[in-house]
Amino acid sequence: MVAKTKQTENRVPVVVIDDARITYKVFASGRKASSKNSGGGLFSKKLKLQEVHAVKGVSFTVYEGESIGIIGSNGSGKSSLMSAMAGLTPLTGGAIYANARPNLLGVGGLLLPNLSGEKNILLGGLAMGFTKKQISAKVDEITAFAGLQDFVGLPMRTYSQGMSARLRFAIAASKNHDILIIDEALAVGDQEFRNRSEARMREMRENAGTVFLVSHSMKSIIDTCTRVIWIEKGELRMDGDPKKVTAAYNKFVGSTTID
Amino acid sequence: MSTEEYALEHGLKKVGARPSLGQYVKDAIRRLDFAYTLASYTLEAGNAKSRLGSWWNVLLPTIQAATYGLIFGVILGDSKPNNFLPFLFTGVFLFSYIQGSFSNGAGAIISNNGLVKSLSFPRVLLPISIVISQTLTLLPQLAVLAVVLAFAPEQTITFGWLMVIPLVLLLVIFNLGLAMIMARVTVHVRDLNKLVPFISRILFYVSGVFFSVEKIFAADSIYAFLIKLNPIYDFLSLARGYLVTGHPLHVEDWIVVSAWSLGVFILGLIFFWSAEERYGREN
User: Fold this and answer.
1) For B212-222, how does the pLDDT look when each residue is reduced to its tens digit (9 = 90+)?
2) Exposed (0-12), middle (13-18) or buried (19+): which is B269, by Cβ within 10 Å?
3) Which of A126, A133, A180, A183 to mutate to test the interface with B (most CBs of B within 10 A)?
4) Is the CB of residue B271 less than 8 Å from the CB of residue B188?
5) What separation in angstroms does the CA of A169 have from each of A26, A144, A175, A182?
6) Which has fewest Cβ within 10 Å: A72, A74, B62, B98?
7) Chain B closest CA to A156's CA: distance in Å?
8) Are the beta carbons of B15 and A131 separated by less than 8 Å?
């Protein structure tokens, strides 16, 4: 780590990830439900507090002007690491430093499902730090970006997955972020919306922002990123040129798993 | 040079690190709009599926107080407090304000996992938002209370009623503290959330909501002494001193309830803040 920082002394770091570790604690037996020992009475204490190591010591430094693609199989720890970078999931060990608060745009988590889309826009905007006046002025623009003019008055629980993902992206994209993490948010949504959001991402990057893109689409990774980091089983597997890393990843996936 | 020194030298800041208490409070105040909006939307969403909508916020406690009035009025017979209806309505409405902040505060973090995991904001806004929505529920109840007080037979209308305003302000501070404490405690010990309804019940019985301590226990009994240690009893008793005609007023109770409110609030704020970076870890 020290050798690497010396070699790149004149570049300005934006995000430094130093031996990040994330462990989840879960009550579970860890056994298959069908296994012989899984039965037992109401009071048999078969559930133990188990530790799941999602990220096991990842370190890398991101410099100004880079846009980073993050790849890896399902369950490799990408999303946990991104969520920690945004300060949403606390680290169990190590540290993450950044020059601005990174914002995560993920597919998970409805805001308030019983409320209308419009109220969710207002609430999301207020949580991002807009004032009431600012966000009220942006409601129409956000609705139009998401393409939900006909549905914005309906409760969010009635939205399809694609619709709610579009709304969330539109809310997050209404603000210029210094560091934006996009976690597979573009996988849902139709082609038209995807084009619109990719244009918005490019615009954001031109405004001196750093973008992290988590995706399973190697094409969009190669199209939008200048550097790719491959995380596998919670560890950093490869880091470097997008074409090289994605080629190695494709080879790995093709030969050993059916992800 | 260590990685940490390298990062700090380039002006980077640790992500998710807990800000200083002063900065934290400042950040929270700047986003109070969020807490208020969340509170009013949650209230609205909670009643969205019923026909009477937000009228339930007033109807439920009124029905509750009327039911208690009927049952305890009969059970207590002659030992029921003087001027029973105003006594009971004051007790039930103010108690349900405290109890609501206590029990909903317990779920402030753990029932809002979706929000905690997808947006970053000072987490203290969640318990604050709970207390705001409880306060919004209390206000129309106070109007009902005013009607009951005005029309009850043994009541006289006085300017003393206005003293309820500073009392409710103190209750807001007290409830904020309670909600912050409960919000953090349940994050560590999830099982406590199961006990919350029972604790609320016990508080209901030991706070003199529907009975007069003087009438039930002898003045020097240990029970009377213990109940009077309970701050909720002090709040109710002080409110009744101003609102319920014939109820004794102890002005020195103001010192007691002010001390409790400030104490619980400061304790709650520090207690909640010191775990800020840990919310969202436990699944």
Assistant:
1) 888 888 778 88
2) buried
3) A126
4) no
5) 30, 12, 11, 9
6) A74
7) 11
8) no
